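Protein chain data
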Amino acid sequence: MLKTTDEIPPEGLQLEVCPSRMVMEMLADKWKLLVFHSLRQKSVLRNGELMRMINGISQKMLTQTLRSLERDGLISRYDYQEVPPRVEYRLTELGKSLCEPIHLISTWGMDNMKCVLEARETFDTRESVHSD
C-alpha cells in the first residue's frame, strides 16, 4: 500500500514506496517518452502513425509501450470495432498533466546535449589513456 507524502521519511527516493521514485521508474523508458512526446504533438494518433513517427520502434515494443501507458492511466485507447481495425490513442487528462514536466526535460536536453557529448568525449579519451 502506498504511503502518503506525509508518511515518507527523509530518505525519499531511496524508498520503493516513494511516489517520485515510482514515477521515475514508470517513465524511465525511451519508448514511453517517445510515444508520449508523439501524442503531445498530435492529440490523436493511430498505431501506424505512431510507428512512422517513432523511428526504430518495433510493433511488439509499441504495443507493449501503449498498453503500459494505458495501464498507468496516461493514454486512452479507443477501438472503433471496425473492419479493417481502427484504434486511436490520445493522452488522458492525467497524461496531459505530465506534458509540462516532460517538455522541460526535452528542453533541457536540447539546451545541454552539447555539454553532455563533450563530457562523454572527455571521459572516453581519459579512459582510453588509462586503459593502455
User: Anything to note?
Assistant: The chain is about 60% helix and 10% strand. The longest strand covers residues 75-79. The mean pLDDT is 87.
